[in-house]
Protein 1
Amino acid sequence: MNPERLKMILTEVRDGRLSIDVALDVLKGWPAEIIDGAYLDHHRQLRTEVPEVIYGETKTAGQIVEIAKRMLQHGYAVMATRVDAVKAAQVCQDLPELIYHAAARMLVGNHARESEDKGRGVIAVLAAGTSDVPVAEEACLTAICLGHRVERAFDVGVAGIHRLFAYKKLLDDAAVLVVVAGMEGALPSVVAGLVSKPIIAVPTSVGYGTGLGGVAALMGMLNSCAPGVAVVNIDNGFGAGCMAAAINRKEPC
């Protein structure tokens, strides 16, 4: 249940176009509903402007279908993260209205478009290397689904830092920047030294043995000497997209 859907129901009741009994039937599963394997929080988008999101990595295709089906029926955006291509194909057989974005490893449906701009400005998403793109794309698609404009700058890491300066206008114009990096995680510190905007740093698990699955990048970002850097968990593109959307939102929820 999103604010627009609830307003529509209340308006139709007020205007006599919807009976109270029918409205009650629509709202009977609100604010929460128990289904097989899940307890759906239909009230979440009203509270936070972010609907409940399906973490798909540990769920079966059948579980994702059942949860997504109920979400679609209630009229809010569907986002399922960490879904591999095989599982996504199985889900889309039952729910062809969902779209699979392989780079982001996400299934989405009934989501906002970039033309439905809820933000104060553009969210810039930077990826240090090509190996960081899946996490960066998760951040991009999350922010887009929440109604924000996104621009990308990929493969601009410190191994060839001159590549970053081709995107100087984007850095200057963006309202919020999400900076994704593995290895030693240096890129967010560099970017934070160039702009006055909020920086959301995302460490990735990309790197060799002493990278410790992203811990080295995480520690490097947490210890940044540049001000204005906040850090999310390792590989958490979804969390970064949500935070960027919250910062960029035109009005508080």
Protein 2
Amino acid sequence: MSKSALPHLRAVDPKLGATIDRVGPYRPRYSSEGTHFDAVVRSIVYQQLSGAAAGTIHGRVMALYGGRSPMPHELERTPVETLRAAGLSGRKVEYVHALARQVTTKTLPIETLHELDDDGVIETLTAVKGIGRWTAQMFLMFRLKRPDVLAELDLGLQKGLQKVHGLRSLPSPKRLAKIGERWAPYRSVASWYLWRSLELDD
């Protein structure tokens, strides 16, 4: 993907191109292990937490099942108190139970999500309580490896665009989406570089 993406991004956005040159090769970390269900559970656990804290809690949850990811029916039957003791908030317990229930009842065809287009994946996932547009977009980018996703609500991307383009104020989601139109069909790649830009010294 990056062989055609990087020349395109450099051509349509020289400021982003300069950041690409500073950051180096495109090396995203994809969530390729386990099932789609495992990936969505993980994304719910990680919502609104730092990576280190979320990783600790996710590890405690998996420890409840012998160090592996739970099957949907196992997670659905796990008591609220047990999951709370592992570190999940009451709301997140509600969310993972709702997800597990929809998967076990086949209301959510989670293991065939990759057969849908981007909009279909977002529509299907956001129908589950506790899964918003951002979580669905992260699933598209890092689980399904879709090349043209731009999470316009992501604060890191907004800050990255502000830094890369030298904007005086933080861009709104609408402005981020508008500027990002030029990056298509490689908005996922552009996003990765915007995130990495925040790690660079000014």
Protein 3
Amino acid sequence: MKSPSALLHAGEDTSGPPRQPVRGPMVERIAGWSARHRKTALFGWLLLVVGAVMIGNMLGTKNLNSYDPGQAGRAERVLARPGVVQPASETVLIQARSGTRTVASDPEIRQAIRQVTAALAAMPKVAAGIESPPAAS
């Protein structure tokens, strides 16, 4: 009777050292392990994603300012320098519904300018320096 190894490998010499088992490609081995250990593989991937997000947040991003070209860009760069403080400002646009009337000729627009100026001046944190158009006075 023949040995079991002789039956498996007919025609091969079994007297020499034992042959190394043939291993499949790396991807197949990883896929097989993942199929056998589903929970471990899933939690491993989740930990990898959480770790990558946490490390990314700790490293942060570098914010680079972008400036317009020409003189406007130069002015933006000067204003962005440390130590340059710009006072807070606000602009209010008041215009006629038709768009054909001017501030000087329309009493409704002039009245609206006076009302907005008075309302802003009455606010507690508004600095003195509210300006209205010259024609509205």
